[in-house]
Amino acid sequence: VQGTGGSSAISKCSAAARGYIQDRFLRLLVGRRRRRAPLVHRGYYIRARAIDHCVQDFLLKTQCHPRTQIVSLGAGFDSLYFRLKDIGLLHHTVVYEVDFPNVACQKAALIKRMKELSALVGDVGGEGLGVITFSGEDYKLLGVDLSKLPELERALEEAGLDNEIPTLFIAEVVLTYMENSRSDALIQWAAEHFSQACFLLYEQIHPEDPFGRVMQQHFRQLNSALNSLAQYPDCEAQQRRFFEKGWTECSVMDMNEFFTCCTPEDEQQRVQALEPFDEYEEWHLKCSHYFVLTASKGMEPSWTPLLSNMTVPRSDGPVGMAGSITATVCAMHSEISGLRRYGHHSLLIKPNVILTTGGFGEEDGHHCRMRSFHVLIKHAGYWKAGYVKKENPDKRRDERLYHTVSCVSNSLALVVGGRTSPSSASLGMLWLKFPEICNASEAEDITVELVSLQPAAEPAASRWRHSATEVIFKGEKYLFVYGGRSAIEPVLGDWYFLHTQELSCTEIPVEGPVPESRHSHSACGWKGGVLIAGGLGAAEQPLGSIFFLRELEHGFQWQTVETHPLLIPRYSHTAHVHDGRLLLVGGVWFHSSSVPALTVIDLITGLCLNYMINVEHVEWPLMLHNHSSVFLTNEKELLLIGGGGNCFSFGTHLNPEPVSLSLSHILASH
């Protein structure tokens, strides 16, 4: 448990060094320095922002009181006191920090040794006494095990804590490491013993979805299990907990909601521009698995820092489900991994032959951008996996993520765009040529020749997380390249009609309301036009709109597709059209507990039906984002390939094997 505190201090320090948070004291309190990934920076930024927002609100609301106090439970090497003191917010507030005795002693020694820190506390002379390892006029550092309530109470009393003045308790990922009976007792004690009390809690939620399972496993491996989750799995359960333990007011929001509603727009934009970033899925999943809660009692006026300054698109309870679909791991006749990857592309190049290219994944036991082309061949009811022989391989062109691959004939596919890293993305286009075989039963039977292209249509190809869909205009085939993002633009709303024979962009008139810019959306060909669904918009907010680019005599026209009920905003999903119905598979959304794994939209009536995926036969967490999917029309079977990603600081999870969903019962004729 103490190790988790040290690790989070290093992460906060790294976030401060990159300008996410303003904190010049962390580097003095944290011995080791390590550069963390942008995803981790964002995660610790939103945590620090939530705590600071609530603490400063408490100090502002209580500034008319002659004395107030803050009790930071499990404070570790946090710099809160020094930051508040430095900006002049502690005129009449005493800060008490509590942690394990050895942590408190280490921190006390650090403060005494560092001039910059000891100068702020003021020189009080004399060593700390007993459990009080450091004592300044407005700062007390106590070494006590929080789970021993009588000892905690004695120590705080001895240090001068007053139970009659406004008091803020802070527990930032602390209580969950204690047994529930002990953390409950602490929450109740604070409500009962202090006449004007506030409580600020930041912790994890949603243990049972795929991301939650990976998160729990990570903490179990660190020997610091998250004990709160079983009894208090969501925001509502945590809120009930505080009401039951004697608090009269309580508000709670997950971190997606906090970032959207309690972080000013200019601040959101500042953070989004700090460093190249492309892990939106994991950022939003991380934020949907942490919450901030504020509770109070006896406070006049009441303390409500989590009242959002805008109306948030709150989910109105769980979404109605039309049924469930059972997922089964594909019966395979080979032991080749190769499909543990994300950000790749899979397509049916022949009946029962699926080619998968690119992505980031696992090869020879380590994680890397994938160079190998992988093929799945269905033979006698089983899938065989293998690697394809490549002619003219080229490392720079082969390794790409978030590209598109489109078949333009029986022996030719076009690769458009993609990226290596988020700051370099001009990978252009590539032809994949494969023989016109019909009876391949082994991967070795298939060779793919790579042919680089002169960047005639450079703007169309300098993007990733876009879509490329075949459309027909006046009898000619075009690829409609739409949306995505680039190294310069975080979201694109433009489009190109790429003539598949000449590979040149053709001007075709398009009328109607232009969809808002988006990436990570889905696109399917339908009736000679394109259906665009969902995606991530300009403010990194998921979109719930569906547009149809419809063919007219003289060009195309954008039309809005209305659904009822409304489609839940999502991105990073896949999509297919079958028999006048649009199937949306997986994706990321903001309210993790309430969104289905498969949505079926009737394109004639607009009826939108949601289905759960039953994963009882899948032994590992099935992550349905950054995956690819192939729809086998005859069998009405959906094959999910790859998917997953870097789960914040909890490690990388990649779906190990392809999964099959049989849709015949829900796609039975109208």
TrEMBL record:
GO terms for biological process: tRNA methylation; wybutosine biosynthetic process. One of its GO terms (molecular function) is tRNA methyltransferase activity. It is an enzyme of class 2 (transferase). It catalyses: 7-[(3S)-(3-amino-3-methoxycarbonyl)propyl]wyosine(37) in tRNA(Phe) + S-adenosyl-L-methionine + CO2 = wybutosine(37) in tRNA(Phe) + S-adenosyl-L-homocysteine + 2 H(+); 7-[(3S)-3-amino-3-carboxypropyl]wyosine(37) in tRNA(Phe) + S-adenosyl-L-methionine = 7-[(3S)-(3-amino-3-methoxycarbonyl)propyl]wyosine(37) in tRNA(Phe) + S-adenosyl-L-homocysteine. Its EC number is 2.1.1.290, 2.3.1.231. The keyword tRNA processing applies. It holds the Pfam family LCM. Pathway: tRNA modification; wybutosine-tRNA(Phe) biosynthesis. Keywords: Methyltransferase, S-adenosyl-L-methionine, Transferase, tRNA processing. InterPro entries: Gal_Oxase/kelch_b-propeller, Kelch-typ_b-propeller, Ppm1/Ppm2/Tcmp, SAM-dependent_MTases_sf. It comes from the Eukaryota. Belongs to the methyltransferase superfamily. LCMT family. Probable S-adenosyl-L-methionine-dependent methyltransferase that acts as a component of the wybutosine biosynthesis pathway. Wybutosine is a hyper modified guanosine with a tricyclic base found at the 3'-position adjacent to the anticodon of eukaryotic phenylalanine tRNA. May methylate the carboxyl group of leucine residues to form alpha-leucine ester residues. Interacts with RNF144B/IBRDC2. This is tRNA wybutosine-synthesizing protein 4. It comes from Chionis minor (Black-faced sheathbill). The lineage of its organism: Eukaryota, Metazoa, Chordata, Craniata, Vertebrata. The gene is Lcmt2.
